[in-house]
Amino acid sequence: MEIIRATADVITVSLGPDDALAINNALNEICNGVHLDDWDFRTRMGVDREQARAVLRAISGSIDVMKGQRLAEGKEW
């Protein structure tokens, strides 16, 4: 993982496959595996469940792209 840039509004990060999978799996577990009431979810995560799911969808889609490109290049996934 590499922090490319950090500003007052945005952090730009470069993630390798393992980093992306770790974030994806953690978000998937907290969004879908562990049962928390909505108020408890927000308290623990700092965002509501729908925002966390939006991040999960975005990173999951990016992982699919990364995986496809790596496999096409003959790299391990």
TL;DR of this structure?
The chain has helices at 17-33, 38-45, 49-72; strands at residues 2-6, 11-14. The protein is mainly alpha-helical and 77 residues long.
How far is it from the N-terminal to the C-terminal residue, by CA?
Answer: 17 Å
Secondary-structure element series: EEHHH
Radius of gyration using CA atoms only: 15 Å
Give a quick account of the main beta sheet: strands, pairing sense, barrel closure: 2 strands, antiparallel
User: Domains counted in the coordinates: how many?
Assistant: 1
Proportion of residues in helical segments: 55-70%
Strand order of the largest sheet: 1-2
Residues in β-strands, percent:
5-15%
Please tag this protein with its features.
77 residues, mainly alpha, two-stranded antiparallel ribbon, 2 strands, globular
Give your account of this protein's structure.
By secondary structure, the chain is mostly helical. It has one domain (15-72). The model has no long low-confidence stretch (mean pLDDT 96). Helices cover 64% and strands 12% of the residues. The chain starts with a strand and ends in a 5-residue tail after the last helix. A two-stranded antiparallel ribbon has the order 1-2. The protein has three helices and two strands, in the order ββααα.
